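ok so dumb question maybe but i'm new to this and my supervisor (M.) told me to 'just get the structure for Nitroreductase family protein' and walked off. so i did the thing. is this what she meant?? sequence i used:
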Amino acid sequence: MSETLTIQSPSFSEVARARRSVRTYDPNYTISKEEMTELLGDAVTAPSSANHQPWRFLVIDSQPLKEKLLPIAYNQQQVVDASAVIAVLGDLESYRKLETIFGRAVEAGYMPQESADSFVANYTKMYTSVPPEVMKKIVYVDGGLVSMQIMLAAKARGLDTVPMGGYDAAKFVEAFGIGERYVPVMLIAIGKAAKEGHPSIRLNVDEVTNWNEFTL
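this is what came out, is it supposed to look like this??
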């Protein structure tokens, strides 16, 4: 069953507080490519280091491919019952897109060509000179930012998600032909809950926050 998804315009606080990790999904509910594209369009407005946008997505909504993913994800049932699984990947060579990104900024009137050329040259030099482990940390952070935005964009549309770190990353990249320049950040199952996620407790803000001096 496919339904047209519309944002219900809840407040951000309502969306954030209503989001729960859901592991039981309606296997008959589908999300169209157009609807998923719209959702991801909201998600990619997330911030990233130097606006280099290193996230890449593999949307797995084919049932045979979800079945293929199931043992790689340690047989977690949501992999096959959710409408799709979004693999969030980090591009270790994302600097290759900088010319496109800043070129479009020039076309949009956001900056002069001279500034764009400078940014491209400086950031390319920076990203090509950092050690691989540093670059991985950068794309993991940025991948986490866009992943959270995916989950909030989904909830705003009445959909449910669960972030998944429990899978064999090496087997995943092999099975799905992921090139060496990409690193898996996480999997996100997305669909309609057949059973609501259970409520959970969060520490109070005053238990996790200091002001001006860290004393926790």
